[in-house]
Amino acid sequence: MAGPLPLGDPAPADGHLPADLPVDTSVPFSAYLHIPFCTVRCGYCDFNTYTATELRGAKQEDYASTLISEIALARRVLDDAGALRPMDTVFFGGGTPTLLPAGDLARMLDAATSAFGLVDGAEVTVEANPDTVTLEVARTLASAGVTRMSVGMQSAVPHVLAALDRTHRPENVRTAVTAAKDAGLAVSVDLIYGAPGESLDDWEASLDAALALEPDHISAYALIIEDGTKLARQIRRGEVPTPDDDLQADMYELADARLGAGGFEWYEVRNWARVPAQRSRHNLAYWRGSDWWGFGPGAHSHVAGLRWWNVKHPAAYAQRLAASESPAAATERPDAESQTLERILLLSRIREGIAVDEVPPANRSRVAGLMADGLVDPVAAVQGRIQLTLRGRLLADAVVRALTD
C-alpha cells in the first residue's frame, strides 16, 4: 500500500469548499476515478492499491455504488460553490480498473457524466492490465463513452516482467491493443525501464515491440525505488542491485531516439505522442494546474488552489460515504510561493515549457547558465520561454532547482 497521507488541515465533514475560494469556471475541470484493486502487488508499486486479502471491510462488487455516492456529493459541493462545470477529461486509474466488470466502469462514467456533463470531444481514459482486456470489454467501454485505453505493457521481455512482479503474458499486450483498436479506442502503452537485470538490449527490444503495436501514445518511466515496497526491501537486503543511474540515462536517450524515429514526438519528459491530438489531455490538465476532483480512497483533488485528499482504505472510504459524510481526510491551501514553485516544477517538464517571466525575478539571471550548460533551448529562451533540451530532460530536477532555490 502507499505510504501515509500528507498532513493537512481538518477537512469539513460535509465537504463544502471555503466561501472565499476564487473559483474560475473558465478553468478546465477533470475527474479522476481511482480503482484500488489489483490481483497481486507489483514489487515496485507504492500506489494506494489492495489485493483481495487486504480488503477487510470492503467488497469489490460494492465499489461502483460507493464511488457513485461520492460523485453525488461532489455535484452538491461544486454546485453550492458556483464551481460546477462539464468535464474536459475523465481518467480511470489504479490499481487495475479493468479488474472490475466493464459494466461497473460504465455505470460510474454515466453517473459522472450525468452529474457534471462532458465537453464536446472530451477525453475519457481507462487504464488496463493486458490480461483483462477482451474485445467485449473494449466494446462495452467504448459504448459507454470511453475514448482511450492505456495498456500497462511495462516490458516485452519475460525476465524483466518477472523482476517487476508483473503477471501478464507479453503476447496479451497485442491482444489488448488489438481489441481496443477494433472497438474504436485510441491506445497508449506504458513502459518501465531500469528494472533489476534489464540490459540496454532488453530495453531496445521492448521499445521495438511497443512501436510494432502502432499505438497513438507511449509513456516511458524510469523505475524509482519507493520506500516500503518489496523492491526496496530486496535492495536493502542485497538481493537485487540498485538501479544504475547512468544506464537509465542511456535508456532514456535510446527511447527518445527510437520513438522519434518511429514518428513520436515528446511533449512531456516521460511521454510521447504521434500527433498533438493524441497527447494525454488528462495529464496535461495536472501539469497546467487545472481543476480536478479525485474520486475513490486516497484520491487527491484540486479546485482553485485548494487541495484535499481522501481517506486511504476502501472500508474507511465506504463508511464515510454511508454516513453521508465527505471521505476527505485533510485539506491544504498552499501559499503563493509554494504555488509558484509547483508551477515551475510542472510546466518546465512539458514541451511548451514556462515563460521566463513566471520565474521569480531573483532567479531569472540563471537562465543564461542553463543555456550555457545545454539544459534549455537558447532560441526559445531568447524568445522568453524556458524549454528543456534532451540533456535538460535528463537533468530536469537540476533545472527546477536553479529556477526556484
- Name the helicity range: 25-40%
Annotation, overall tally of beta strands? 15
**Rg calc:** 21 Å
Poorly predicted regions: none
What is the overall pLDDT average?
94
Through-space gap between termini? 33 Å
Provide a count of the helices: 15
Strand content: 15-25%
Mind summarizing the main beta sheet? 9 strands, mixed
Shape: globular
The quaternary structure here is single chain
What does this structure look like?
- This protein is an alpha/beta fold.
- It starts with 8 loop residues before the first strand and ends with a helix.
- It is built from 15 helices and 15 strands.
- It has helices at residues 63-80, 102-116, 135-144, 158-163, 171-182, 200-212, 230-236, 245-261, 281-287, 314-322, 336-347, 366-372, 378-382, 390-394, 396-404; strands spanning 9-10, 29-35, 87-94, 118-128, 148-154, 186-193, 217-222, 265-268, 271-273, 291-295, 300-303, 306-310, 328-332, 354-355, 385-386.
- The longest helix is centred in the N-terminal third of the chain and has 18 residues, at 63-80.
In short:
With 405 residues, the chain is an alpha/beta fold. The protein has helices at residues 63-80, 102-116, 135-144, 158-163, 171-182, 200-212, 230-236, 245-261, 281-287, 314-322, 336-347, 366-372, 378-382, 390-394, 396-404, and strands at residues 9-10, 29-35, 87-94, 118-128, 148-154, 186-193, 217-222, 265-268, 271-273, 291-295, 300-303, 306-310, 328-332, 354-355, 385-386.
Main traits of this protein?
405 residues, nine-stranded mixed sheet, alpha/beta, four-stranded antiparallel sheet
